[in-house]
Write a structure and sequence with these properties.
Shape: globular
Order of helices and strands: HHHHHHHHHHHHHHHHHH
Distance between the termini: 48 Å
Number of helices: 18
Number of strands: 0
Strand content: under 5%
Helix content: 55-70%
Largest sheet: none
Structural class: mainly alpha
Length: about 550
């Protein structure tokens, strides 16, 4: 055979099938990050379908589409899935992919541990979802699963046991992932990358991972307590253990809200800076606010227990209100970043801008339910459902999509379609507010959460119908997003290495990045601040005899 006819050499295991297999066993942090992100997006679609089924049941009074037990399974797995399996892992997946790139590291610390964390997360998700195959169905007692409702006497289903095991395994995986990201920041920063030169997103991951390793073990302890109580129901015969479970659970349950918030807030900050052509505003204040927020997050858990009469209401109300200070600094930084900038309204920027007012609604209503006198009125009503969804969907999910549209070219080398992206955005804005805004009215009128039906005379019908119509719009928005991703991968439009004119180090290497992130032929630029590429552009312009405007950037 002549030389020009020979098949190119491939290393063992690098056939196409082998390459696909390697993507599931690779210790490259970028592949692990994409696995976490992709898995969480698939699970988002699955648990989103459960929400559509619930909204179909609640669209009209006295509906019989679902029975009570089935409805209880759906709201439990929907809530559990979004918190344990979607928003939290996606945030950590962003950290796994981006933090080593942003701090100039060749990889992540303890990559095998990171990969183990991913597979524990997957196994946990599969175990939890497998409860639907049990004879009595999946776990029906909510993502919090208070005893004695969740003991074996009141919830005898094997699906409840599978839920406990699944959540325990998945959360163990997220703790491992969070620890490796934190250790990467502490041990693998590039020369000259001091802590105060790290980008805002990397700082948000520091605060996030501190909460993960500090508070998530409390959930594991609560699940062990619940498992023991299912073996011996007498454990929860005493109210001390029931209230003790709530204290331990919410010591996890409140910080996890900020785990599902900080990375998306920082992603929005990165997008706003780039598409405003400005340096991120109030960098040091934001870093301090993130760390303060993380510390306070583990002091407010008792405001979820005001109605029990067994929490120090004055203390927990005070610490809840104190959260306004770091939150205000973060919002001030976002708004200050875009003021005076030259705004470019590409799809990532639209999602980032919408994040600000929508998450503000979730934050302000959070202060309301953190005040005992208001919480007594709206506790366990649809007002709380509206608040939670304005935090996690109207807020964090918009930050999630800002991150997806912004960093998709970095991960794939291709651009998402701008037209489909903007259609996705507007459908999501309409669907989000049409779905969740009526819930505040329902809560004020007295509709309890976790009910599967209601009478026509209750007066809840028209608001529920609006909310269910909004859920349909949300489903359409997600279909548009899926079509956008598939079409952009099928018919690729090359993005180049830096399509947006980025300011941080991940844009200094190729798109997608090579295995070691920064090869010798593309060395790191000088690191002089938290926006080294912006500094480099300014030095180049100054060297050409031009004076750059303050905070100047560029856009494709």
């Amino acid at each position: 055979m002549s030389t020009d006819q020979q098949t190119p050499y491939r290393a063992p295991g690098h056939t196409r099938a082998g390459g696909r297999l390697m993507s599931f066993t690779s210790t490259d942090h970028k592949r692990i990050g994409l696995l976490i992100i992709g898995t969480s997006l698939v699970l988002m679609s699955l648990v989103g379908i459960l929400a559509l089924l619930m909204r179909s049941q609640l669209a009209l009074p006295d509906e019989t589409f679902l029975d009570a037990h089935t409805y209880n399974q759906l709201f439990t797995i929907h809530g559990s899935g979004m918190i344990y399996m979607v928003m939290t892992p996606f945030a950590l997946g962003l950290g796994v992919y981006l933090v080593p790139l942003q701090i100039g590291a060749p990889g992540i610390a303890m990559p095998r541990t990171t990969l183990l964390g991913y597979w524990l997360y997957v196994c946990g998700a599969v175990t939890m979802l497998s409860g639907f195959a049990a004879s009595d169905g999946a776990h029906p007692d909510g993502w919090f699963s208070y005893p004695p409702l969740a003991d074996r006497v009141n919830s005898p289903s094997v699906g409840s046991d599978l839920w406990i095991v699944g959540v325990f395994v998945a959360v163990t995986g997220t703790i491992l992932i969070g620890w490796t990201v934190l250790w990467t920041v502490l041990r693998k920063r590039a020369p000259m990358m001091t802590m105060m030169r790290m980008p805002v997103f990397s700082w948000s991951m520091v605060a996030t991972c501190l909460m993960v390793v500090g508070s998530f073990p409390a959930l594991l302890a609560a699940l062990v307590m619940l498992a023991v109580g299912r073996v011996d129901p007498a454990v929860f015969a005493s109210n001390v253990w029931n209230i003790g479970y709530q204290h331990i659970f919410w010591f996890y349950g409140h910080p996890v809200v900020y785990v599902m918030f900080f990375p998306y807030l920082a992603a929005v900050g990165e997008v706003l800076a780039v598409f405003s052509g400005r340096r991120f505003f109030a960098y040091k204040g934001t870093v301090l606010a993130l760390l303060t927020f993380a510390a306070l997050s583990m002091s407010v858990w008792g405001h979820h227990m005001f109605a029990t009469g067994q929490a120090a209401n004055d203390y927990y109300s005070l610490t809840s209100i104190l959260l306004l200070m770091p939150a205000g600094i973060e919002y001030f930084a976002l708004i200050g970043t875009i003021l005076g900038g030259r705004l470019v309204f590409r799809t990532p920027m639209l999602f980032a801008l919408a994040f600000i007012p929508q998450f503000l609604i979730g934050g302000l209503t959070g202060i309301m339910v953190g005040t005992p006198v208001i919480d007594y009125h709206v506790h366990d009503s649809y007002f709380v459902v509206g608040h939670l969804h304005y935090v996690l969907f109207a807020g964090s999910a918009f930050g999630l999509f800002a991150a997806v549209y912004y960093w998709f070219p970095k991960a794939t080398g291709a651009l998402l379609r701008e037209g489909l992206g903007k259609l996705h955005f507007w459908l999501l804005v309409v669907g989000t507010n049409l779905t969740f805004l009526p819930m505040f009215g329902l809560g004020y009128l007295g509709m309890p959460r976790r009910v599967y039906t209601y009478d026509a005379v209750d007066g809840f019908g028209w608001l529920n119908l609006l909310s269910s119509c909004g859920a349909g719009v949300l489903a359409l928005a997600m279909v548009v997003f899926i079509v956008n991703v598939l079409e952009s991968l099928r018919s690729r439009r090359p993005a180049g290495d830096d399509p947006w004119g980025g300011q941080t180090l991940e844009w200094a290497t190729s798109s997608p990045p090579p295995e070691m992130n920064f090869p010798p032929e593309r060395p790191l630029p000088p690191i002089t601040s938290y926006a080294p590429l912006l500094d480099l552009k300014k030095r180049k312009r100054t060297g050409a005899g031009q004076t750059p405007a303050a905070g100047e950037g560029s856009h494709a």
